[in-house]
Write a structure and sequence with these properties.
With 118 residues, the chain is mainly alpha-helical. It has a domain at 19-99: P-loop containing nucleotide triphosphate hydrolases (Rossmann fold). Helices cover 59% and strands 7% of the residues. The protein has helices at 2-8, 22-32, 46-56, 65-79, 81-86, 98-117, and strands at residues 39-42, 90-93.
């Protein structure tokens, strides 16, 4: 459904978040070829991830760092997320501030994406 929406849109670019299983990545690669760029945004510090989850206030989020790690194991079993991570074209760290993240996005554009668009 997402591929269809993208193809029917007039927008030249799209961001799709929450891609988990390798099979979903393959769907996008088949549909968009070299124009599809998979960016793995990584928060490597579990405590940072947990604090951000608390700030989000979602009921589905765990109540501890340990629960967060259990959820990661469960997602790996279902979606094979480690295989998907290996398929990433670009890895962006997101352990710092919002400003750090924006700097990472700029770096991605300036040093990866703009070269790909040339």
């Amino acid at each position: 459904m997402i591929v269809k929406k993208i193809k029917e849109s007039d927008s030249p670019n799209f961001l799709v978040s929450g891609i988990r299983p390798p099979s979903d990545i393959e769907v996008f690669k088949k549909a968009f070829g070299d124009k599809f760029v998979l960016v793995d945004v990584v928060i490597s510090d579990d405590e940072v991830r947990y604090q951000r989850m608390l700030a989000r206030g979602s009921e589905r989020d765990g109540k501890s760092v340990e629960k967060l790690r259990e959820n990661d194991i469960h997602e790996e079993e279902i979606f094979h997320t480690s295989e998907s991570e290996k398929m990433a074209d670009y890895i962006m760290k997101n352990d710092g501030s919002v400003e750090d993240f924006y700097a990472g996005v700029k770096d991605f554009y300036d040093n990866y994406l703009s070269a790909k668009l040339d």
